[in-house]
Structures are given as C-alpha cells and as structure tokens.
Amino acid sequence: MKEECRKYFDEPVDRRGTHSLKWDVKDNELPMWVADMDFRTAPEVIEALEKRVQHGVFGYSIIPDEWNEAYRSWWEKRHHFHIEKDWLIFATGVVPILSSVVRKLTTPGENVLIQTPVYNIFFNSIVNNGRNVLQCPLIYKEGEYSIDFEALEADLALPQTTMMILCNPHNPVGKIWDRDTLARIGELCHKHHVIVVSDEIHCDITDPGKEYVPFASASDICRDISITCVAPTKTFNMAGLQTAAAIVPDPFLRHKVNRGLNTDEVAEPNAFAVWAAVAAFNKGGEWLDALREYLYENKQIVKEFVEKELPDIRLVPSEATYLLWLDCAEICSDSRILAESIREKTGLYLSDGVQYGHTGETFLRLNIACPKERLMDGLRRLVDGIK
What we know:
The protein is of the alpha/beta class and about 375 residues long. The chain has 14 helices and 15 strands. It has 2 domains: about 5-45 and about 285-385, Aspartate Aminotransferase, domain 1 (Alpha-Beta Complex), CATH 3.90.1150.10; about 55-285, Type I PLP-dependent aspartate aminotransferase-like (Major domain) (Aspartate Aminotransferase, domain 2, 3-Layer(aba) Sandwich).
C-alpha cells in the first residue's frame, strides 16, 4: 500500500464536539460500536464537496445522468453486474428504502423474514410498520455461519411470509454469500412468492482478493424478484450526506418501489448527495483499495491479539465489513451485561449481540475502522474489561 495512503488512515481525527452520533460519549470513553469509520473520506469526495460549497447556492436538486452512470460503471467494473439506467432509483438512505418497501409491498400482520444474527435496524423497519419479524437463524458451528435451508424453506412457505430481507455481505458476521447460495435463496423465494430485499451496503468493504456477488446477478430469478439497496456511504464514510439507491430490474416492482419512496418523500437529493456519490464511484477506487488493505491489517491485529490475550474469546472469521463478531459464550450468557460492564470499567463502548437477534446473546460486535493506535487502545481496554 502506498505510504501516503497509510499516513492518511493512520492520522487520528478528533471527532469530539462535531455532534457525531458515534462520539457523543464521555471524555474517557472510546466508541467502537456503530458502523461509522474514524477516517476522513476520500480526497476526491472532499474536493467535489468543496467545489459544490464554493458555488454558494443550495437549492433543490435533480438526479442527473452522471449519477446513474457512476453507479452503472462502478458495478460493471467492480462487481461484474450490468445495471440498466432505468433500474436505479435515488433514495436518501438504505434504511429509508427498507422501511418504505416494507410499507408498500407488504400488509400489516404479514411476516418479513430475516436471518439472525443480523443488522438490528431490520427489526425496526419491520416492527415499526406493524409487520411480524420472522427470525430464521443462521447455523453457527465451529466458529462458522451457514444457512439452514430446510428451516428457510419452511419459513418461506408460511402463507403470511411475503418478504425476505437479505444481508449481503452479512452484518455482523462478515460473511460473503456465494453465487450458488444466493441462487438457491432466490429459487426458494420465487417458489413461495416471496420478494427479496437485499441490503448490500457493505458490498465494497471486502478483504483484498475477495469479491461479493450481487444477489440480482446470481440468476434471472433473483434479478426479477429483488430490490437491492446500495450506497457509497459505508464504503466512503459519508452516511451523513444521505445518498443511496435502489436497484429494481423488474418494472412492476420498480413502479411500486418508486411510488413508495416518493410517497414517503425520501426520493429527492440534498445539494451534496449526488455529487458526493459521483465523485466516490468515479474517482475513489484507489482510495478504497488502500482502505481495504488497511482494514485487513486491522483484522489480523485483532486476530493475533485475541488468540494471545483473550483465549476464552473466539473471533468469527470475517471476509467483509469492518465489524468483527466476538463469540464470548465461554465467559458470559448475556452480552448486554458484559458490554455494559466493559464500558463502565474501561470506557470501551461496544455493541452487544442481543440487539441482532436472540442468537447473538453471547456475542459482542467490534468496529475496527480506525487508526491502528486507536485500535490497540480499544483492544487493551477489552482485555482489562474482561479480566
């Protein structure tokens, strides 16, 4: 990795006093919880935003062709998936897309299936809209996660199950689902008339040499029954700019999604949302590749540290995201109590696994997207808290 890139990610950024959700903590606390990196975004994105600011007028914005082309080019080159221009719909975020399609494409009392442990906001998007959360737990065996296809089909076959929210790559377990697995999910959902909403916001944050497979590219069936949620926000650390997209190949589904997003008023960009995304996808590739190397190094640091200093903790192998899943079953039965104790005694703020579903009750989630010096501080606090 180029030396200037390493310096870029090693440089500490003081985020206190910036009204940061992540850093709204006590002076002695170190937050390593929410999926928000402590790195400045790519210089190319900053440059594009500065240019937009210098214009000085921030009126209503439209979606220009450059936005569509940036997404299409990125997915073609990076993920070998051809996207037609008409398939793309702008939205202010992946979560707004999730909540909107749950409202538009299901009715109150129906089941929305999720594979736990999984991103906790999935629960909110379902429950807050009066639908039932149907947890179909992943199989956890010898430190690895896989899909229980027998249980999955049984749950999909329930007449009240009308939607599945897929996490690809999977947060928090860091799993990249392969093409055959995704195609099999698609076949089962098609068989039982279930729409798939695929959250692929972490798709670009894979280990070097690892590639994710877009669900809609796995088969023609997957393409025709799916709504894919994507964004540059996790990848380039700019969630506060509120910019995302829904990829919807099927025209009938696309009409429904488009109407839902517009009815909910989450389909119009702010003055910075379009140009930040265009700059990221058109010019941010080199920065991203350097970031992926840096995050992979951080993963190796955590792996070696846990093996040496925390023999009772098992680190679940990760291929994607910057969120590590720690199996603490040997030392606790409720990770909420463990996380609270660690925070109280050391100031280290982690996510407890309970919020990701009942199968996460003995796990902690650790965010490693920070300079190595800060990472080591967090790991030392983790040891102190557990001891």
